[in-house]
Write a structure and sequence with these properties.
Number of domains: 1
Structural class: alpha+beta
Number of helices: 4
Helix content: 25-40%
Bound molecules: FE2/S2 (inorganic) cluster
Order of helices and strands: EEHEHEEHH
Largest sheet: 5 strands, mixed
Length: 130
Amino acid sequence: MPKITFKNPEGARSKGPLTVECKRGLSILDAAEECGARVGHACGGNLACSTCHVYVEEGIDSLPEIADKENDIMDKAFDVRPESRLGCQAKLGDEDLVVEISEESLRAWLDENPDERKKLAAEAAEKKAG
Ligand code: FES
């Protein structure tokens, strides 16, 4: 089974990459949800936002071509790069992928998980207090 490695599964506080084996045809977003990587998904994977924006650093040629609608939605995304894809649309082929989660996706994930945002804020306050 092919694998997806998320380089920054918890954003800045990631302790290292997270690798998960996936069935061919699984989306990057579904894989992230299975392993706990923080890929946002404000529209629930319905191709109506850009919060699942990720960078596919290795294996991008094994993904299905980007469709017009995905391109249209990508126009709403921030910091788009040649390796940008929407995690809900990019489905795993036969090759392993290495993926970096975009800042907008990490922020969206925290919006969707307010308890985690509170934890982060508490940790930051603790650090500041010394
Ligand atoms: S989750 Fe909204 S476009 Fe992917």
